């Protein structure tokens, strides 16, 4: 990743820095510091020198400084094209020896499971250092570091820090207030025996990946270089770090999807569902947008609904869509592909999503279509048991997820308001500021660093359970107006706890099943694992319209009714 | 009023919960096994690494405080029925106004030589599990004596840790005093296919001492010696009442109770595995040591204690189990050797690990029971068919209503009905799909 030799040339600067004033300033500064003569053996030292160059150039430029985001924008190509890349420029060999070999290694590891009898394979999960989980203290440590990082970032943006501290303070206050009703006995939520060091190591690895990807993408150019041939074949352009992310995402999902299908090969629901998430990730999230670009149409993930796709209705996106792409005539009205795509985005959010959720529950999106859900159900499957099932966690979940939903709605409204009226300042914030905070806190920190990086620490659906505004919205539909429920099979529950343990959303399924009550929870993504791991055939995911208002009223294990008492007493 | 419950298994805990729902009395729950209620049926999953102990607790620790159910972690040494007092092993006494005995079971031992050695144990409570865990390190073979539900669980547990297992089953086929021949044969096959060494018609003769008080081998009645590092005794359970035999309490095999779950002593009740009904309803046994009846008794006894007398009625029998990977469900009466006036329709899938059996009356065609192997059926639908005395033809016609397998699973109803028409020379045609809306309409009809 870091090991590559770099040399800067004037040609590169002229090619990738648009403004002439900038070009001159950078070339001058680089000449002064002797950067052009030097050959750097790692990208770390090279990037450090480049940053010094930009700093010196900025002093010269005075009023018309190169902004931070421009620095980042220039750093990426200046790093990427100043080197031949790893393996002496044989990027193909690097690609085969890293990504492909790792994928094959994964497959070779899972394939022997086929020789065992089909059936539930959870043996030893709580004996393994990578899947047994960590103690509450380690969990809190991970969360605190993430929060501190976010605070540190927001300290440089004055109103944001107030907002941030306010929101955290409110959540802590609410949870503390509701917890105090329960006396001293705190909820069990994580094992008291700290261990799981392999899980911790894997979590740190994932977090590091996301931190580089989101905040320091110029360090991963050696990887994007490996993918240039594939990217050029698809979209025609070179690989960006987002292409790298998409490619790795798909590769990991395929490998771990194969694992999932081997593990649950006796369970058709799981097989079809896994194929579905793979199809939507590979096709809709990865290939179709790239091909759209190749066809000179706007880039769009056609299944990504607002507010998960939080930038869909922001001004710059609207400009990228409306009237862009090929002109087409639809029913005699001339329009463009971009306009239709934007209209589809509106229809997806306001018609398709609620209607499908009414018919099938939110599972149709969260565990059949969604990319975040897809990664959780494949890469995240070994960690599903680590979700916190305590009542306390449920309380935090409700405040946080609905808080994010409100934030997403407010942010979108302000940004749209600004776009439509042209009024840039809303109270003390500017629309652009609010959008960038949302992008940082929710888009990058929550869904990426915490959402995926915390798989081995807090389970595989941290983002979907606590953070995803779309999940929050779908959950409201599922809870109040949907045909979906998990039916409990009469009195057959033996309270063993497999369902709750393997619920990735941290739903205490057993609490309902042992009462003979059907399960209707806004967070349920309908993955079907509770039904799969139940040793007594108690749970079934079902849709039906006869009893929408009373899906949970019956308690099938209640043995004695009022009429029994009248007859017998 | 102070309600004291001895035993925090499913029966005792259900009694405590319902006593709280129905009254404001002081409730104390005593157990020396674990402080908090856990699900006994999940012991195997702790050993296999599917769950931790805390995952097997159906209620979080704050639940007991919130519901004012006092937990006492102690062993009851003696009960003074006259003074209505309990003497605990921590030198305290507890006075009660109502006493509920929910003492559970103990593993059967039939006087085998060596049965009390180290590295010999049953599987009923947390302490048994701790023993198993302790002796599992470097274990090269375990021998399991007894072919019942606990025996196969124990075999699966050792097998999950790649410890070779030999299962000695006295009968000619696994659990054939309960399962009909075909289902029993299916389980035999499944056990052997899993790689477990199943020995049928093999009876334990003695357990051999290694000289240090540990079991090191067993001998069978046929004279074979099998070396092993652990012997699991899983030849059934009996009520855990030996310590009450010399008291004024009426104890037969279990603590004798009437239909209100009252013992012969005023203010003392018995429920769950340890209770023996003096007058069970027709077709049912006096002692039924299963989870579900324990739960029903717990609920019933709470009503009786709280001044709402109600007779114990376990309803239509049901039970379930899992034989390694094959799930088993039973609704109503399906017995190994049915009475003369009953016959059964049995269907088995070609792959040999799914089956369905329906018992029905030869003369009236009325269905009396369902056995399912590897297929899930809906409890309430089967119960309604049995309760409302549906003839088998109507059940076959509506068979799709009962299917409870997860969505997208292969359905076998049309195969089953075809086989039924052929076997019994009938002409039933299968009804529409078993959607929830159709099931709902049927259940409300």
Our Rg estimate of chain B from Cα atoms comes to: 24 Å
Category by helix and strand content of chain B: alpha/beta
Tally of structural domains of chain B: 3
The overall strand count of chain B is 25
SS field, number of helical segments of chain B: 11
At the fourth level of CATH, the homologous superfamily of the largest domain in chain B is FAD/NAD(P)-binding domain
Proper CATH architecture of the largest domain in chain B:
3-Layer(bba) Sandwich
Protein described:
The complex is a heterodimer of chains A (569) and B (445). Chain A has 569 residues and is mostly helical. Among the domains of chain A are: 3-83, no CATH class; 216-296, no CATH class. Chain A is 59% helix and 5% strand. In chain A, the strands form four sheets. Chain A has a two-stranded antiparallel ribbon. In chain A, strands 3-4 form a two-stranded antiparallel sheet. In chain A, helix 2 (20-33) crosses helix 3 and helix 9 (221-234) packs across helix 10 (241-263). With 445 residues, chain B is an alpha/beta fold. Chain B has three domains: 2-106 and 238-305, FAD/NAD(P)-binding domain (3-Layer(bba) Sandwich); 120-235, FAD/NAD(P)-binding domain (3-Layer(bba) Sandwich); 318-444, Enolase-like, domain 1, CATH 3.30.390.30. Chain B is built from eleven helices and 25 strands. In chain B, the strands form seven sheets. Chain B has a five-stranded parallel β-sheet. In chain B, a hairpin with a 2-residue loop joins strand 21 and strand 22. Chain B is globular, with a radius of gyration of 24 Å. The relative contact order of chain B is 0.11. The model of chain B has no long low-confidence stretch (mean pLDDT 96). Classes of the chains: A mainly alpha (569), B alpha/beta (445). At the A-B interface, helix 11, helix 21, helix 23, strand 8 and helix 24 of A face helix 3, helix 7, strand 21, helix 8 and helix 11 of B.
């Amino acid at each position: 990743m870091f090991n590559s030799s770099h040399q800067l040339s004037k040609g590169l600067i002229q090619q990738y820095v648009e403004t002439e004033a900038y070009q001159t300033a950078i070339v001058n500064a680089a000449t002064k510091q002797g950067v052009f003569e030097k050959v750097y053996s790692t990208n770390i030292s090279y990037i450090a020198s480049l940053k010094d160059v930009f700093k010196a150039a900025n002093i010269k430029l005075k009023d018309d400084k190169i902004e931070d985001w421009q620095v980042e924008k220039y750093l990426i190509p200046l790093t990427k094209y100043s080197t031949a890349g790893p393996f002496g420029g044989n990027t193909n060999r690097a690609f085969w020896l890293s990504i492909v070999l790792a994928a094959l290694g994964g497959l070779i590891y899972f394939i022997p499971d086929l020789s065992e009898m089909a059936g539930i394979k959870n043996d030893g999960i709580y004996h393994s250092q990578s899947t047994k989980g960590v103690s509450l203290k380690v969990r809190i440590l991970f969360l605190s570091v993430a929060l501190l990082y976010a605070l540190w970032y927001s300290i440089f943006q004055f109103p944001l820090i107030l907002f941030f501290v306010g929101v955290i303070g409110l959540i802590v206050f609410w949870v503390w207030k509701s917890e105090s009703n329960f006396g001293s006995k705190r909820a069990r939520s994580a094992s008291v025996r700290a261990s799981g060091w392999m899980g911790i190591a894997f979590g740190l690895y994932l977090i590091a990946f996301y931190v580089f990807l989101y905040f320091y993408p110029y360090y991963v150019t050696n990887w994007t270089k490996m993918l240039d041939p594939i990217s050029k074949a698809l979209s025609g352009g070179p690989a960006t770090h987002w292409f790298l992310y998409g490619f790795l995402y798909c590769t990991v999902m395929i490998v771990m999807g194969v694992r999932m299908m081997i593990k649950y090969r006796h369970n058709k629901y799981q097989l079809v569902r896994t194929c579905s998430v793979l199809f939507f990730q590979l096709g809709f999230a990865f290939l179709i947008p790239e091909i759209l670009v190749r066809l000179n149409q706007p880039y769009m993930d056609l299944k990504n609904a607002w507010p998960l796709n939080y930038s869909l209705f922001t001004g710059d996106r609207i400009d990228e869509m409306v009237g862009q792409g090929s002109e087409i005539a639809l029913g005699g009205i001339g329009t463009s592909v971009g306009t239709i795509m934007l209209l589809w985005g509106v229809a997806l959010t306001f018609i398709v999503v609620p209607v499908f959720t009414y018919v099938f529950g939110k599972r149709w999106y969260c565990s059949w279509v969604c990319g975040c859900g897809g990664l959780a159900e494949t890469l995240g499957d070994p960690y599903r048991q680590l979700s916190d099932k305590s009542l306390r966690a449920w309380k935090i979940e409700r405040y946080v997820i609905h808080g994010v939903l409100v934030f997403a709605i407010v942010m979108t409204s302000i940004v749209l308001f600004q776009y439509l009226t042209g009024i840039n300042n809303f109270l003390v914030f500017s629309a652009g500021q609010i959008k960038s905070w949302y992008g940082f806190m929710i888009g990058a920190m929550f869904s990426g660093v915490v959402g995926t990086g915390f798989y081995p620490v807090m389970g595989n659906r941290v983002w979907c359970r606590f953070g995803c505004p779309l999940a929050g919205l779908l959950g409201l539909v599922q809870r109040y107006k949907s045909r979906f429920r998990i039916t409990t099979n009469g009195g057959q529950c033996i309270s063993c706890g497999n369902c709750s343990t393997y619920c990735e959303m941290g739903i205490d399924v057993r609490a309902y099943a042992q009462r003979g009550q059907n399960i209707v929870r806004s967070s349920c993504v309908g993955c079907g694992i509770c039904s799969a791991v139940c040793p007594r055939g108690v749970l079934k995911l079902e849709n039906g319209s006869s009893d929408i208002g009373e899906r949970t009223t019956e308690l099938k294990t209640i043995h004695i009714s009022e009429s029994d008492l009248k007859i017998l007493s | 009023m102070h309600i004291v419950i001895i035993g925090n298994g499913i029966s005792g805990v259900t009694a405590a919960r319902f006593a709280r729902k129905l009254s404001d009395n002081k409730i104390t729950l005593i157990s020396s096994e674990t402080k908090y209620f856990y699900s006994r049926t999940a012991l195997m999953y702790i050993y296999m690494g599917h769950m931790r102990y805390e995952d097997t607790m159906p209620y979080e620790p704050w639940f007991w405080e919130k519901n004012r159910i006092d937990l006492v972690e102690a062993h009851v040494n003696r009960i003074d029925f006259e003074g209505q007092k309990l003497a605990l092993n921590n030198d305290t006494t507890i006075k009660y106004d109502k006493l509920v005995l929910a003492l559970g079971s103990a593993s059967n031992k039939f006087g085998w030589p060596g049965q009390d050695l180290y590295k010999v144990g049953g599987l009923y409570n947390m302490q048994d599990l701790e023993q198993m865990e302790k002796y599992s390190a470097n274990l090269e073979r375990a021998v399991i004596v007894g072919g019942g539900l606990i025996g196969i669980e124990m075999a699966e547990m050792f097998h999950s840790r790649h410890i070779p297992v030999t299962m000695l089953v006295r009968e000619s086929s696994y659990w054939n005093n309960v399962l009909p021949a075909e289902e029993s044969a299916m389980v035999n096959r499944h056990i052997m296919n899993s790689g477990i060494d199943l020995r049928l018609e093999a009876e334990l003769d003695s357990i051999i001492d290694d000289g240090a008080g540990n079991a090191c081998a067993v001998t069978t009645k046929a004279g074979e010696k099998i070396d092993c590092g652990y012997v699991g005794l899983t030849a059934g359970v009996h009520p855990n009442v030996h310590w009450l035999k010399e008291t004024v309490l009426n104890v037969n095999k279990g603590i004798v109770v009437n239909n209100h779950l009252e013992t012969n002593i005023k203010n003392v009740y018995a429920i769950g595995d340890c209770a023996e009904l003096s007058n069970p309803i027709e077709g049912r046994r006096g002692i039924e040591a299963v989870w579900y009846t324990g739960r029903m008794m717990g609920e019933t006894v709470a009503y009786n204690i709280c001044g709402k007398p109600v007779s114990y009625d376990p309803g239509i029998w049901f039970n379930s189990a899992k034989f390694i990977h094959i799930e088993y469900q039973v609704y109503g009466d399906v017995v190994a050797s049915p009475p003369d006036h009953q016959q059964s329709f049995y269907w088995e899938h070609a792959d040999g690990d799914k089956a369905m059996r329906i018992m029905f009356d030869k003369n009236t065609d009325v269905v009396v029971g369902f056995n399912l192997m590897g297929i899930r059926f809906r409890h309430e639908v089967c119960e309604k068919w049995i309760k409302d005395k549906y003839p088998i033809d109507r059940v076959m016609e509506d068979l799709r209503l009962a299917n409870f397998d997860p969505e997208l699973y292969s359905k076998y109803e049309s195969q089953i009905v075809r086989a039924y028409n052929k076997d019994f020379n009938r002409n039933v045609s299968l009804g529409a799909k078993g959607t929830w809306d159709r099931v709902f309409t049927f259940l409300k009809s």
